[in-house]
Amino acid sequence: MEILDGKKISNQIKEEITVEVAQMKERGEKVPHLAAVLVGNDGASLTYVGSKVRSCKKIGFESTLIHLPEETTEEDLLKQVHQLNNDPAIDGYIVQLPLPKHIDEEKVLMAVDPDKDVDGFHPTNFGKMALDMETFISATPFGIMELLKRYNVDTEGKHTVVIGRSHIVGRPISILMSQKGKPGNSTVTLAHSRTQNLKELTLQADIVISALGVPRFLKADMVKEGVTIIDVGITRVADDTKEKGYYITGDVDFDNVSKKASFITPVPGGVGPMTIAMLLKNTLLARERHNN
């Protein structure tokens, strides 16, 4: 059993980007600039955005954090989005989700310039990804593909079962895994909450990608020997015995499933760190796109 170490690979990617940025600075060129818009004070969002800002600083990117109050109106947020669209200094930006209930997320994401949409959420970018065209791929699916690639996990002709059909992870990864390429070329089954014979499907799977958000949902009796497991789930489970009052776990019963797996991602330290690394990679691509 081999651990797919997202922390290690994300650090490698960051080191590669750091070298590229240093070379840009030597040539007197503009370095990539990533902006993040955060509305309100959601704890997980604050942590995530803070991590992005620190990563930018570490690799030599410029970064801007626009932190707006919870009561910001949809109109004001859209004004901010249009400002970022028209600011030549900003190569790419993200609007951190979830947004407060009174704001229409879809309307805001639709307003983002697809050429600056480094999250890869805009329908233009999703459509290009589905058609195998050059575009920004959502950071989490992009990170999964990069992990499989760097660990030389064989996906060709394999049966991949994806659990979860979200627009951010499940649906895009199901498309990417079926496309021509390496990794890719696998036969994909997309399962979800209405799938009736899930255990039957996961027992056939060579690769299981779980993006469900249900703690320890995937048990050892649901997978076969030699399976590759990608655990995208990340849930805080309350636990008074822990210093923080909770522990982090994934969708997979790691202790038992790992005994049968040939490759498996841990939680934390698997897919999570890859998401930030690929967001930085997308920002680098955005800067190249704007310079050309």
TrEMBL record:
Q: What processes does the entry annotate via GO biological process terms?
A: L-histidine biosynthetic process; methionine biosynthetic process; purine nucleotide biosynthetic process; tetrahydrofolate interconversion
Query: Per UniProt, where does NADP(+) bind?
Result: 164-166, 234
Report domain Tetrahydrofolate dehydrogenase/cyclohydrolase NAD(P)-binding positions: 138-290
* A single GO molecular function term of this UniProt record: methylenetetrahydrofolate dehydrogenase (NADP+) activity
Entry's Gene3D superfamilies? Leucine Dehydrogenase, chain A, domain 1, NAD(P)-binding Rossmann-like Domain
Q: Which residues form the Tetrahydrofolate dehydrogenase/cyclohydrolase catalytic domain?
A: 4-119
Q: What is its EC number?
A: 1.5.1.5, 3.5.4.9
Pfam families named among the record's database cross-references: THF_DHG_CYH, THF_DHG_CYH_C
PROSITE patterns attached to this UniProt entry? THF_DHG_CYH_2
Give the pathway.
One-carbon metabolism; tetrahydrofolate interconversion
The catalysed reaction is: (6R)-5,10-methenyltetrahydrofolate + H2O = (6R)-10-formyltetrahydrofolate + H(+); (6R)-5,10-methylene-5,6,7,8-tetrahydrofolate + NADP(+) = (6R)-5,10-methenyltetrahydrofolate + NADPH
**Which InterPro entries did the record assign?**
Aminoacid_DH-like_N_sf, NAD(P)-bd_dom_sf, THF_DH/CycHdrlase, THF_DH/CycHdrlase_cat_dom, THF_DH/CycHdrlase_CS, THF_DH/CycHdrlase_NAD-bd_dom
UniProt key word NADP: yes
Offer a single GO CC term for the protein. cytosol
Q: Which family does it belong to?
A: Belongs to the tetrahydrofolate dehydrogenase/cyclohydrolase family.
Give the record's subunit note. Homodimer.
Spell out the protein name for this chain. Answer: Bifunctional protein FolD
Tell me the organism.
Flagellimonas chongwuensis
